[in-house]
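Data card: per-record layout.
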Amino acid sequence: MDEVQIKAINLANGKNLPETPTLMFEFIGTEAYALEQAKIVQKIASKHNGSDFVFTEDPKAKKELWKIRKEALWACFAMVPSYEAMITDVCVPLSHLAELISESKKELAASSLICTVVAHAGDGNFHTLILFDPEKEEQRKEAERLNHLMVNAALAREGTCTGEHGVGTGKMKYLEKELGVEALRTMKRIKAALDPNNIMNPGKLIPPHICF
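The structure for this 212-residue chain is written out next.
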């Protein structure tokens, strides 16, 4: 989670967490193995100028930490309760994740909108929560512009326009660039074979201009 997301968490939950980019790890295995892995990660974090490494084995403390992460979206509305959130995500190979987040953060920070970053660092996927006033069309357009920049930056790094949230209608326009026309035609043929009456989630995923 980035520093803006941590600020939102502090506001929403009455916490006093350091408002800096924060990584959360969960170590699974025997007690000895988990402790060994925690020490390894602590050394790596220290080597890269990380700070405030906190490790807990207490079930209640662990539950509270993950509760903070899972409620990240709702925490954002503590900053601007009347706003809406455009929730977008992209995914790239792990080797490109740090570069992509750094580039995206520059664009997000330069924007007039409040934006937070929440990532799944282990699989190259990260989300951006872009907060905007639904009554102001220019803010909605700015949110869409930021989403567009993130998607194209991900595609330029061998990534995908969405890691978890799906294509739906909002990211359909990026699929031709990501997959190519022939791949989309193949997908459309499969859809037609399985759903000849086009009653299963029609109008999603495949751009309407793609023909057999």
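Known properties of this structure: The chain has three domains: 1-79, 82-165, 167-211. The first strand starts at residue 84 and ends at 91.

See the next section for split statistics.
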